[in-house]
Amino acid sequence: MRWIMTGAAAAMLAASHSPAGAQEVRTQAGFVPHVSGELAIDLYGVSTYRAPSRTDRFRDLYTKSELSAGLHLAESFTIQGVLKFEPVAGGPTDGQDRAFQDQGAWVDALYAEWRADPRLTLTAGKFTAPFGRGWDNLPGIRLTDQVSIYEVSESLGFGARATVLDDADGWGEHRLSAAVFTFDTTSLSSTAITRKRFGRDEADRYRRNSRGLGGAGNTGALDNAAVALEGERIGALPGFTYQVAVLSRGAGTDGRAREWGTAIGATWEIPWTEEVSTTLFAEAVRFRNAGGRPVEEVDGTPVPISERRTITTLAAQTTYGPWRASLGWQVENRDRSANGVARATYLEASVGRELGLGFTADIGWSRARAGTEQGGRGSTDAGLVLVGWRQGF
Question: Is 288 exposed, middle or buried (0-12, 13-18, 19+ CB in 10 A)?
Fold first, then answer.
């Protein structure tokens, strides 16, 4: 991990001392401290109509809402915060329907951001570490849910972002981001407006995080790191963006080894006419010693489980004016030394449009294929509905 952070720091230092980066950040006359942000409310409806067993068929209604705000105290200094209201447990169990149950609110991010230089920004606090982009930018209705397992949220520590090359007419703009962090177990991880229901998994998020939860990165020390290089506005590839990232997290109380992750992702927007365009998405993420090589029971004996976990996503979205159509495919392979898990795939197709006044609506279909309790593989088909509303301030 040390060589990752040393290399990233050297690159950022060189960028910040370039001629363009040496410009002074000046305060414009008339600046007034202010607050800006956005409220986003998404209502999801999921209805499984075909599944391997009756207990796998259910109807689920829930919301994923987010309030993000920034307190701009100076031109170069801002305090950013994100409050989320989402389900804190997995989906319905034993074929029971669910409507806005298991919802919880928590502080997803709260950090100070200082633009120390036009090319260098420093952060400190609670944030999402720079690793992968699919959990944030994939199209469709539930594609982002499927890859949320590698969203490195609940990160408490320090970060930096530096522009290492800015050549909009040629090589493009390329930024290097780095962070050192630990898993948040402070009061910021507490949840509100929720309670634990009988029979739900203890690992589900009903209360403040703790070291006892285990998991990669939950070490109580700043010994986790992520480094990402991303670029856009490349002259030879208009509409193309990319990210290449590396992640290293220490083992939690239930683990025996450091977890390593790599992520490679890209998007490419292709305009056909003034109103019609297609955006292609691709991302591959791989973890070695996934979860920090946790200890599990194997035939009654505690054994550290070595796992190589790979998640691959391909998607495309075509827009025509306010209309959009999306198609996405994901596959997850888990190569484990014991307690094997079958390959899982997810296919989704959806159509939607902007309705005006900040409202959007999408309908779709999905097919998930994974292992069953009987040892085979089964498919689950579902109808999907998403109604969203966004308002900036």
Answer: middle
Predicted pLDDT at 374: 53
Q: What token pair was written down for 195?
A: 């309670």
> Going along the chain, which residue ranges are E strands?
34-50, 59-74, 77-87, 98-99, 103-117, 120-127, 155-167, 172-183, 224-232, 240-249, 259-271, 276-288, 295-298, 301-304, 307-320, 323-336, 344-356, 359-371, 377-392
Give SS3 for 151.
Answer: coil
Around Cβ 336, how many Cβ atoms within 10 Å? 14
CA separation for the pair 325, 260 (Å, rounded): 35
The Cα 249–Cα 229 span in angstroms is 19
Q: How many angstroms separate the CA atoms of 344 and 363, rounded?
A: 23
Choose among 314, 370, 318, 367: nearest CA to 340: 370
pLDDT band at 14 (very low <50, low <70, confident <90, very high): very low
The neighbouring-strand residues paired with 362 are 352, 386
Distance CA 142, CA 305 (A): 29
Which position has the token pair 């949220």?
Answer: 153
Euclidean distance between CA atoms 158 and 169, whole angstroms: 33
Instruction: Determine the length of the chain.
Output: 393
User: Which range has the worst mean pLDDT, 6-10, 196-200, 348-352?
Assistant: 6-10
Task: Please give, one letter per residue, the 3-state secondary structure of 169-190.
Answer: CCCEEEEEEEEEEEECCCHHHC
Banded pLDDT at 196 (limits 50, 70, 90) = low
* Mean pLDDT, rounded, for 296-308: 92
Helix intervals (H) in the chain: 2-16, 134-137, 143-146
Q: Which CA distances in Å does 337 have to 298, 304, 305?
A: 10, 9, 6
CA distance 13 to 33: 30
- The alpha carbon of 114 is separated from its chain's Cα centroid by a whole number of angstroms, namely 23
What is the number of other CB atoms lying within 10 angstroms of the CB of residue 308? 14
